[in-house]
Amino acid sequence: MSDSFAGDFGPFGGRVWLNCAHQGPLPRVAAEAAREAVGWKVAPYRLTSERFGGVPRSLRESLARLVGAAADDVILANSASYGLHLMANGLPWKAGDEILLMKGDFPSDILPWLALRDNGVTIRLIEPRRRVVQADELLDHVTGATRLVCLTWVHSFTGLAIDLKALGGICRERGIIFFINASQALGTRPLDVGQVPVDAVTSVGFKWLCGPYGTGFCWIRPEIRATLRYNQAYWLSMLTADDLREAVPEPNPRADLGARKYDVFGTANFFNFVPWKASVDYILEKGVETIRGHNDRLVSRFIDGLDRDRYDLLGPEAGPSRSTLIFVSDKKRGHNESLFRRLSENGIDVALRAGDLRISPHLHNTDDCIRRALSVFNRA
Ligand SMILES: Cc1ncc(COP(=O)(O)O)c(C=O)c1O
């Protein structure tokens, strides 16, 4: 069971990739799809109208299935930042509105809002007592002026998962928009936007969704999307190349596009979206709940096998706030950098983040990957 996905990935040149929080590996089926897409461009007669329209349509459908949304409500993007900017630049802000963020959150979740200060919007950063915001802290900070709360679901710098239900519930009761960045969670944690009180979700596609770099998407609850005032009228959303055949078309903006009005330009970017769709379909086929179980077991194995006389586990041993991002430090913190180098020399790829080591296994990893990593940790 534990090894059942490994044959669908790689080869990894004998190395152990434990850094999915940075980049997830492309499954073989997606690499094959990418090769197919390259073939379409090598012989452009194969770039048919069906493919121009079909690639974004089928990707949108797969992403919708992933988060339990309607396909019409999914916006195709090239990053997590795309959705964050869309919301920051598109929502109708008034002077005096307030946005709550978290101090120490991933920079993509903070930077897009800061310019709104020029419009009189107040940006407040909650300084969490325990690295990520807890429900009681949010309650202490919300005011009658709070319009939006934006947080990362799984925090890139600690691996801690926030309590979506509790935090979202507080927002929902007060009519506050709860916007989450799911980049470090989707693909390894199930999400059903019909079941949890979130109003907008943005995510990259290149980490736990195992897509190419330069992929992402955003889902916005339709009532909130309807309030966006953002001038985007991409001709290929309004028309198709076939509309140019007979005569010069009258370029009238269409009002019936749903979320795709806000898609990133160039949605038929076959080199990225064809393999990404194959990766998402692969994850859907295996089942996020099954993948979560596999990954959870790898995380437990690592934690159980780590020499705790020498290393501190910086996150929780277990429980809902534990994620697939494991942070550890040598008790002599100054040794982390040399340990990182030694791991790399021994073919183990992890990340060094803010002076600590981050290990992030995903479905391509096996018990043997964890054993090999531990053998370097515990002997170093
Ligand atoms: C939580 C989180 N959000 C966003 C990103 C990157 O987002 P973008 O696709 O906008 O570069 C990362 C990591 O690269 C991340 O960890």
A few lines on this structure:
This protein has 380 residues and is an alpha/beta fold. The protein is 35% helix and 14% strand. The strands form three sheets. A seven-stranded mixed sheet has the order 2-8-7-6-5-3-4, with helices on both faces. A four-stranded antiparallel sheet has the order 9-10-13-12, with helices on one face.
Structure report:
With 380 residues, this protein is of the alpha/beta class. It folds into two domains: 6-18 and 287-379, Aspartate Aminotransferase, domain 1 (Alpha-Beta Complex); 30-284, Aspartate Aminotransferase, domain 2 (3-Layer(aba) Sandwich). Helices cover 35% and strands 14% of the residues. It has twelve helices and 13 strands. The chain has helices at residues 28-42, 49-67, 80-90, 111-114, 135-141, 164-174, 222-225, 235-238, 270-286, 288-305, 336-345, 367-379, and strands spanning 16-17, 74-77, 98-102, 122-126, 146-152, 177-181, 200-204, 216-220, 311-313, 326-330, 348-349, 351-353, 356-359. It has a seven-stranded mixed beta sheet with strand order 2-8-7-6-5-3-4, sandwiched between helices. Helix 6 (164-174) links the parallel strand 5 and strand 6. Helix 1 packs antiparallel against helix 9, helix 2 (49-67) runs parallel beside helix 9 (270-286) and helix 10 runs parallel beside helix 12 (367-379). The two termini are 30 Å apart. The model has no long low-confidence stretch (mean pLDDT 96). Pyridoxal-5'-phosphate (PLP) is lined by residues 79-81, 106, 108, 152, 156, 181, 183-184, 204, 216.
